[in-house]
Amino acid sequence: MKKYVFTTESENETMNLGRKVGAFLKPGDVIAMTGDLGAGKTHFTMGVAETLGITEYVSSPTFTIVNEYTKGKMPLYHMDAYRLGDPDELMEIGFEEYLSGGGVIIIEWADIVEDVLPPDTIWVEIQRMDMVGLNTRNIILKVPEGDDRFADFGN
Fold it and tell me: What is the pTM assigned to this prediction?
């Protein structure tokens, strides 16, 4: 995996990084997100959604498991694995159908379902840096080797 590390210091900067990543996404991409509660996973997703042309309000799918946003340049399927007991439950909600749904999938708490994710999954780890500043985050983007879409992001 190729790793890119970014530091953001506000919710808006986290959303801007999501916008930047969103510009490079294509149908079928899966973004697996990890990070503590309140780390900024949903704000990052809001930025991606905006770049995909989605004007609906993006909220965390913690209780619904999946929020579908279909009115954009391509669909966004925003999932939250926090309440899933194991990876099989992701399959039971139709994960394979979402993979072939012509959109982008973002999964929060993806480490819970890592075993069933495609090998070309893009990983985003958000680390709160509370000792530095209340809204400071290190965001680590990990992309599979050979995926050069993000090469100009730098380190």
Answer: 0.92
